Amino acid sequence: MSTLSTAAIRRGLAVIASVSALALVATGCASSNRTETPEGDSARGGTLRIALDKAPASLDPADMEQSTSPFAQPAYDALIGVDTDGTLVPALATEWAFTDDENKVFEITVRDDVTFSDGAALDADALIANLEHLDGGKSNVASLVNGGEYEKVDDDTVRITWETPHPLAPQAFTQRWVAGMVVSPDAIADDTVSLATQTVGAGPYVLDDDRTVAGSAYVYTARDDYWNPDTQYWDEISITVIENPEQRLNALRTGEVDYIAGDLASADAAAAADLQVLYAPTIVYGLSLLDRAGDLDSPLADLKVRQAINYALDRESIATALLGEYGFATEQTIVPSEPGYVKALDGRYDYDPETATQLLTEAGYPDGFSLPVVASTSATAATLSQVIVEQLAQVGITVELDSRPSADYFEGMTSGTFPAAVIGYGSQPLPMEYDGLFGPSAIFNPLGSQSDTIDDLMAQALVAPEAEATALYEQIVTELVEQAWFAPAVFAPVFYFASDDLAPIEVTEARPQAPITSIAPAE
């Protein structure tokens, strides 16, 4: 039995463990319950059993949050694939490219041998129907590609023209994002409401309505007419919703399920049980210093104060105490594997309470000040909040902590009434962070902080070739760190656990979860 490597994560480097796993079937051994594919070229496992922490509000990709995309993956293939090294590869689409020099005109060609589970054909008209359907949806990632004009170039090619640059369109159309998942055009035309509870995709499986209980259990069965049968590794995929992480872990230990969403609190127990632990530190936790322009008359309008807060945080100790081997300290909001991360900024604010005190004195606060901070009561955020309170108190800053449950916290954080907030934010490509975290219209920037330097650099990056854009992203990240818009502390991990009977799964430093359909039985 293979075991997980537990080498410590160094600063700025997320060590991703490869994992082996194999689903149990009714007989208790997938290898003894193989079935031949229709072509007879390879054998499939029986049932892959998965337990996740929350159900989707809808199964329609146009209305689906990214966090629940695993429920769509069995039924909906994406237009573009992405390898574990980040390389984009053909999937439902065979070719794609921007045809202008501003990332506003994008052409994509789809395969001509694909049908959906209802028999409809994939072609240019089908893709246009999907893009228009996405325009009217509620997906939290639709903005990556929607709002364009869609033109049929030929039977299999669509030209998309946007008024503004969309440089992340190729990445958005991959299996990482629901924007790339394609629905049958006939289903869109007939009844979009039913797509919330049924699947009509071009993927390897279709939802079994009779055996599915919305919000609780979802069963997907293999299609006989799937265009790429060699990648149908299972007869069935079953996803059960188990909110309690301990219950999920127990189900994995006893063989009731084979692959689960894990968490930090149970990671050591999973490793001790010889289960495979798959993780990547991708969520940045720390302080967002929201009142950068002094709209609330807080001391955060002074750069020296914001820098003092950064110097007051002992990031290495926080990472060790809070995350152990599973995370690392950071001064940046973007993970090392994403374009824009600047290695030279590591250690920019090494723990130095004397410098913090000196900067506060220079800013006119020799005796410190009080700072209202809103925080979540979720486990990691709550623990970090207490550490921040203690460490800032050592340099004279009294944190007035307002801890709230999730929904109340988000309302408070976005209300524009708090000068600072403890945040946990999943690292994204920098243009997405600009839209969601630090741009003037970002929801995590409720006071609308604005920097001409950052805005100008982002405007240049959005229309630049990839290599030039990366250099511009690095300048943006440097500006954010030097101007101390945030006081990041650590990157915390997202976890998945599996039995040690699955074929080895590769993941990336930025995303620990493999697509559901890529999980295969062991040989």
From TrEMBL:
The UniProt entry's coiled-coil ranges are: none
Keyword hit for Metal-binding: no
What Gene3D superfamilies does this protein map onto? Dipeptide-binding Protein, Domain 3, Periplasmic binding protein-like II
Q: Which InterPro entries match?
A: Peptide/Ni-bd (IPR030678), SBP_5 (IPR039424), SBP_5_dom (IPR000914)
Keywords on this record? Signal, Transport
Q: Does the keyword Hydrolase apply?
A: no
Signal peptide annotation:
1-23
Q: Where is the Solute-binding protein family domain?
A: 87-432
Q: Which family does it belong to?
A: Belongs to the bacterial solute-binding protein 5 family.
- Name of the molecule in the record: ABC transporter substrate-binding protein
Q: Which organism is it from?
A: Microbacterium dauci
